[in-house]
Amino acid sequence: MQRIVHVSINLATVAFSVGILFLGWSGLEHPTLLFAHPLFSDIFSTSFFTLNLATVPLSSVFLMTLGVLGVLSAIYGIGYGEVYRARFEGAWLDVGVFLFIAAMAVVFLAGNAFTFLFGWEMMSFVSYLLVVYESERPEVNMAGVLYLAMTQIGTVFLILAFYLLHQFTGSYDFAVFVHLARTLSPVLQSVIFLFTFVGFALKAGIMPLHIWLPRAHPAAPSHVSALMSGIMLKTALYGLLLVNLYWLSPTVWWGVLFIVLGGSSAVLGAFHATQETDIKRILAYSSIENMGLLFMVVGISIAAFALREWTIAGVALCATIYQAMNHAAFKSLLFHAAGSMIHGTHERSLNFLGGLLRRMPYTSIAMAVGLLSVAAVPPFNGFMSEWLVFLASADLARTNLHNVVGLFAAIALFALLFTGALVALMAARIFGVGFQGEGRSPGARAAHEAPFAMRLSLLMGALYALLLGLFPAFIVNALQLTLPEPLRFSPVHLWYTGNLFAISKLPFILLFLLVGGGFFVFLLLRLFIGKEQRHIAPTWTCGGERMAFMSYSATGFSQPVARTFRSLMIPVARGYMYRPAWDFVLKTAQYFRRIQNGSVRSYLVYLFVTVIVLLIVVR
Q1: What's the pLDDT tens digit per position in 488-520?
Q2: Which helix (H) or strand (E) holds 47?
Q3: For the NADH:quinone oxidoreductase/Mrp antiporter transmembrane domain, which residue ranges apply (predicted)?
């Protein structure tokens, strides 16, 4: 009976996600008001409590991505959830995943402030429950509390931003914000920008607001981690794009702020990903790196928009959305593959893995596709969007050599290239240490492949990531519909459509060169060297017995980078931001403990003073 309930809920999640996918597809060309109904009209006279659901081209892209990831995670959950069926709360995990997907859909469909905040809070609360699902582990509870605290701080800033927009536009509807928000004073627009930037950056895990992400994502079940990293982080990106490029009139310094913090997060996140050994923490830091990259290219788009460089702004915005789709695809694939590794070995550390290529072939293929994608190796999907990021950054630097914007665009280029090198190291480290060689633990030596449902989801995810890289022209043309009118560009601005190396042909040409070049090298080797002569001999180990742990470990693999860039390992945010804030809170709490003196008279005085203050504020 438990299995029937478990499978039924996941199949319902698949059907619901398919509906979200088609809803997003239909809204890409035909924006539609789906639902608008006032709530609590008998109690409150305000129009704030109105449930408003609508599709617009920008939200439709994120809805389609959510639909695809929802299908993959639900199918994966059919096999992965078998581990939890013995638990009394096993079915609640499946229900939580369904509600989590529904909450994110509400965020993307929101047509006013109330609906957005309702979906945002529902998404945060449900994801918190999913993070602490394995609450018997102490570190899980701590991760959940930290995640909930950080996300609520971000919500406060979003409420302040929506309050200011309402005060000066007289409405809570997003359609009104589109037409009136740009008429506000530059100072007020900058205040709204800062509030939304902090609120959304907290959810996105941008450094130094990232401390919850490396703890919460590894704590959650793997298919939940895939949804959190793949699409939940994109709700913050969606909100930032909506506010800064569709509602407000951005200025150059907004873009510079995005570039600086985004570039820093990309480099530092990639560096920490090369140092961690827990496979899910590695992927969590990789998500920080990818979100930093997305923030950086948003900054390029904002700076170009402020300078009226419409083509560069359009290319950068298109690259942002494309990269968000690609990151959702390969990061969910990587988390699913990591979950399969943990499922088959009961080990999380790379130092205790190895030899999985022979024992887990399906997981190995999926992990290889995901790592090639995250490393931006053509023709996999990460390459094409990062190529657009490179073009936009290079063009902005070239056209603004005479001012400070060109300097920051050049810094963005450096951050992109340096991050790419670190990510390549991370990918080689995961596959080389985790899948090649010999198993370094009993769990790795006795590894077994994942159940059928998990393998099916892995192969579907790998195919999805590959298709996003093989058909970039189709995707870029579709993404044109999401851009504001002045930012729409012709492909001729990026490539010559009649050229041999047009973007529609480039992935296939690269794939042909890769396969053809490898075959040509193979023929040359066979021609000049002849058939391979194999001589099997024991490995020399100074006269001792050869053991698996003698091979390169994950820690040893990354030691050269750690020693070269040891300054990047200084916990600046924790030491100079969070620790002083935590000490201040503790001291303040100890001071206020004095008011709890046990006297009823004192408590009545406190209550009386509070009522008087509230009456004054309300009046």
Answers
A1: 776 555 543 344 335 555 555 666 666 777 777
A2: none
A3: 110-398
